[in-house]
């Protein structure tokens, strides 16, 4: 069976109850298929920036990452957020291995436009390490910190990181957020979206901010792997069991 990649971000990181509920579901799913967890942690980074009196600037939903901020962003995402999830997974009886995009050459990472600072874009790399871990029923828990060929650390948007993992492993992808899925102008859930509808909703300003990055990443993955990608909420993890049964939850993004 195809591996399942679940991406969590936002307020999920740091919400112990939500983490337990989701990790219990992942433990169920792992009985029938390989599972990977990719995570962000924008709000933790935000907290650290505020505590340190450092300014946050975002362009197109991406955090402008200065050399001064980088050590804290790495600490918050690859350190605190990653190890917290690993510890919570242990408590749920899983066998997690905490990783970043830097490990096992799993991706190729290059700096994006200089206006973003140390922000990376990624393409699929080598799947050997991940396949080895999945073959032994480990749960890879992957943060979105990467590095380029010169050894420079780069901050990668976690939705983009999850997309590349799906491309690398030809896996099914679930992007979980704090909303039920993509909402229309009247805040109603859209159960499916095509590329053309996505363009219209972005142009009309209905899809904005972090959701723009998320739907674009979902569309790129759907096109590449030839499977719909689901955007749903981590607040209803039981809906993931429905998805495993091919029933709908959240918003399904179709390749065309
Ligand atoms: N059309 C939309 N439908 C749903 N959420 C949207 C939409 N447009 C913008 N958003 C915002 O995008 C957020 C999710 O993106 P983001 O904060 O990056 O999520 P995460 O941190 O979980 O990756 C939602 O909480 C919501 O505020
Ligand atoms: C370049 C960029 O924007 N990186 C993100 C990485 C974390 C992330 O994506 O977290 P969520 O999934 O919680 O949004 C950041 O620094 O916030």
TrEMBL record:
Alphabetical list of PANTHER family matching this protein: N-ACETYLGLUTAMATE SYNTHASE (PTHR23342), N-ACETYLGLUTAMATE SYNTHASE, MITOCHONDRIAL (PTHR23342:SF0)
Protein's job: Catalyzes the ATP-dependent phosphorylation of N-acetyl-L-glutamate.
Enzyme nomenclature, EC number: 2.7.2.8
Any GO molecular function: kinase activity
InterPro entries referenced in this protein's UniProt entry, alphabetically: AceGlu_kinase-like_sf, AcgluKinase_fam, ArgB, Asp/Glu/Uridylate_kinase
Site (Transition state stabilizer): 7, 214
Domain (Aspartate/glutamate/uridylate kinase) ranges: 4-233
Major subcellular site: cytoplasm
Top-rank lineage group of the source organism: Bacteria
Subcellular locations according to the entry: Cytoplasm
Residue positions binding substrate: 41-42, 63, 155
Enzyme class, UniProt record, top EC level: transferase
Listed name of the protein: Acetylglutamate kinase
UniProt record similarity statement: Belongs to the acetylglutamate kinase family. ArgB subfamily.
Pathway(s) where this gene product acts: Amino-acid biosynthesis; L-arginine biosynthesis; N(2)-acetyl-L-ornithine from L-glutamate: step 2/4
Pfam families according to UniProt: AA_kinase
Swiss-Prot/TrEMBL keywords: Amino-acid biosynthesis, Arginine biosynthesis, ATP-binding, Cytoplasm, Kinase, Nucleotide-binding, Transferase
Gene3D superfamilies associated with the record: Acetylglutamate kinase-like
Organism: Bowmanella denitrificans
Reactions listed under catalytic activity: N-acetyl-L-glutamate + ATP = N-acetyl-L-glutamyl 5-phosphate + ADP
């Amino acid at each position: 069976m195809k591996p399942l990649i679940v991406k969590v971000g936002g307020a999920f990181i740091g919400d112990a109850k939500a983490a337990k509920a989701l990790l219990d579901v992942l433990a169920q799913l792992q009985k029938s298929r390989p599972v990977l967890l990719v995570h962000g942690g924008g709000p933790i980074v935000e907290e650290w920036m505020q505590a340190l009196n450092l300014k946050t600037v975002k362009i197109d939903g991406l955090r402008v990452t200065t050399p001064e901020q980088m050590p804290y962003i790495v600490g918050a995402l690859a350190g605190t957020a990653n190890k917290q999830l690993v510890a919570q997974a242990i408590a749920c009886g899983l066998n997690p291995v905490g990783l970043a995009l830097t490990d096992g050459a799993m991706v190729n990472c290059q700096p994006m436009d200089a206006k973003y600072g140390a922000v990376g874009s990624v393409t699929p790399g080598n799947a050997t390490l991940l396949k080895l871990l999945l073959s032994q029923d480990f749960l890879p828990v992957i943060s979105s910190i990467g590095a380029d060929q010169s050894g420079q650390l780069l901050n990668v948007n976690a939705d983009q990181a999850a997309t590349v993992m799906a491309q690398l492993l030809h896996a099914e992808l679930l992007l979980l957020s704090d909303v039920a899925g993509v909402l229309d102008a009247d805040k109603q859930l859209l159960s499916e979206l095509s590329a053309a509808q996505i363009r219209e909703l972005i142009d009309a300003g209905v899809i904005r901010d972090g959701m723009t990055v998320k739907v674009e990443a979902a569309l790129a993955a759907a096109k590449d792997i030839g499977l719909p990608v689901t955007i749903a909420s981590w607040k209803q993890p039981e809906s993931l069991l429905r998805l495993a049964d091919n029933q709908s939850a959240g918003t399904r993004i179709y390749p065309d």
